[in-house]
Structures are given as C-alpha cells and as structure tokens.
Specification:
With 283 residues, the protein is of the alpha+beta class. Helices cover 16% and strands 34% of the residues. Strands 1, 2, 3, 4, 5, 6, 7, 8, 11, 12, 14 and 17 form a 12-stranded mixed β-sheet that branches.
C-alpha cells in the first residue's frame, strides 16, 4: 500500500492511498479518529486505513499539495557516512558506530514542492537516501526483531548546505535550513517492500544521473541502525530514519556541483517511486 499525505485545494490536511494514478482519500470520519498518518501508525490502524481509502472520494495528484508522508514526526534521525562508496570518496575509514544527526520537520517538504536554497549560501547539495518509517514503538530492539518495527519506506533528499555543515564538527547547521530537504512521494508499507536491501537508488539532477547505488551497499544496515538507535532513545510510530547517501554528492566532485534556482532534482528508489523537487532561491 502506498500512502500519501497532502493538503487539498480547500486547505484541508488529509491523506489517502495512492492507487491507479489517483489518491483515494480516507474522508473526514476517519480523520476524526486518526488526524494524520502518524496517528494511524500509533493506533496500529493500517488495515482500517486500507478499508477507509476512497470514503473521502478520489483526487488527482495534481489537485493537491503533497507534503512529507509523516508531516510532524516526533523525530527525524539522519545517518551520515553510511554507504561504503561515500565513505571512500570522503577519504575516511568506516566508522565504528553510526554517525547520527537530526533534522527538524520544518526542513522537509513533500514531492513536487520547492526545495529552497537559502540566501546564506550557494553550496546547496543533493543527497538521495532511503527513509525508514517506524510503525511499532520500541526500546533496546534486537537486530533480529528490528524490521518488525518498520511501518514502511520512502525516498528522502537530505539537502545539505555544505559550508554551514562544515562550520564545526556538528552537521546540524547544514541540515536544518527551512524547506531544504524533501521526503516522499508516499510511504510504501513494509508488507509491500519486504526486502529494502534488494532495492536500488538513483539521484538525478536536471536529468543527469549523479548517484546510483544498490541499497545493499549500506555500511550499517537497517536492522543494525534500528537496534543501535533504540538503545539511545525510544523509537516511536512515525519516527523517520534517513539511512545515508552514496557517493556522487556535489561536494566531492571537481568542479563542485551544487543545486541552484531553476534546477530539478529526483531521487528514485525501486519498489517505492520517484521523489522530484524543483530548486528555488529563498525569497
């Protein structure tokens, strides 16, 4: 099942199942019980959502404004240096433990919405990633049990303001500019995407392939990440784990390749779809 979150033309925040090129809205009665997709996951109500799809009618994707599938997660946890090809292009060794930073929900837009290059910098880089969305809460989760806690997956673009990222050893400053990242176009449930490690990812900038990788190249796999993170914090329904980017980022190209106003960036993951965003300068 593919579940999208969106704002309708009358300003209503809603969600529904993407099927046959249409959005099958869950309707007002269902939203009264479960305000958003995060609430659905917290209630363990995915089966109810599937049954309710279409009760609010059908919409064309062009009729709505798509937002991140989880518009207000409790936390967005990002993993740095987590593809072996990317680790090698930075000239570093594989970390002993995952490198972790966080993003705020305000830094993430949905499919087809502009990613914003801030006035403060022209070092705006793309980072195609696989996002993991937690469905079942847990603390101290064993690797063997980790995938049972996953609700689904989405495409993620960890848009990075590279000079601010490099101001200190902490990545936070380069990762949280408003509307600088993206997630979508929808959440694909784990029962539909049973083996994320078997998928491939490709990032394209203005139609040119700039990143291409098998997800299996992850230095720390999804079960290992979930187990490690759950030692530190309780993972909650709707939490997002952005699992890292492969080689090919603009920072390590010569000459450097950064996104600018008028560009178009796409992150495609097999089994999920394509997250596409225009690039715009901050007003």
């Amino acid at each position: 099942m593919r579940i999208a979150s969106y704002i309708t033309s009358d300003g209503t925040a809603s969600y529904g199942v993407a099927r046959d090129g249409r959005l099958h809205d869950v309707g007002a009665d269902f939203r009264a019980r479960h305000a958003d997709l995060r609430a659905v996951l917290a209630a363990g109500a995915l089966d109810e959502l599937a049954a309710a799809a279409g009760q609010g009618g059908e919409l064309a994707q062009e009729e709505v404004t798509l937002v991140s599938p989880i518009p207000s997660p409790d936390k967005i946890i990002c993993i740095g240096l987590n593809y072996m090809t990317h680790i090698r292009e930075t000239g570093r060794d594989k970390p002993e433990k995952p490198s972790i930073f966080t993003r705020y929900p305000s830094s993430v837009v949905g499919h087809a919405q502009p990613m914003i290059r801030p006035k403060a910098s022209d070092w705006f880089d793309y980072e195609g990633e696989l996002a993991v969305i937690i469905g079942t809460p847990g603390r101290d989760i064993a690797e063997a049990d980790a995938l049972a806690h996953v609700a689904g997956y989405a495409c993620f673009n960890d848009g990075s303001i590279r000079d601010y990222q490099r101001h200190t050893s902490q990545f936070w400053a380069g990762k949280n500019f408003v509307d600088s990242g993206a997630m979508g176009p929808w959440l694909v449930t784990a029962d539909e995407l049973t083996d994320p490690a078997a998928q491939t990812m490709e990032t394209r900038l203005n139609g040119e392939v700039v990143q291409s990788t098998p997800i299996a190249d992850l230095a720390f796999g999804i079960p290992e990440l979930i187990a490690y993170l759950s030692i530190v914090t309780e993972l909650l329904p709707g939490d997002v784990i952005a699992t890292g980017t492969p080689s090919g980022v603009g920072l390590f190209r010569e000459p450097k390749l950064f996104m600018k106003d008028g560009d178009h960036v796409e992150v495609e993951i097999s089994g999920i779809g394509t997250l596409a965003n225009p690039i715009r300068d901050q007003a």
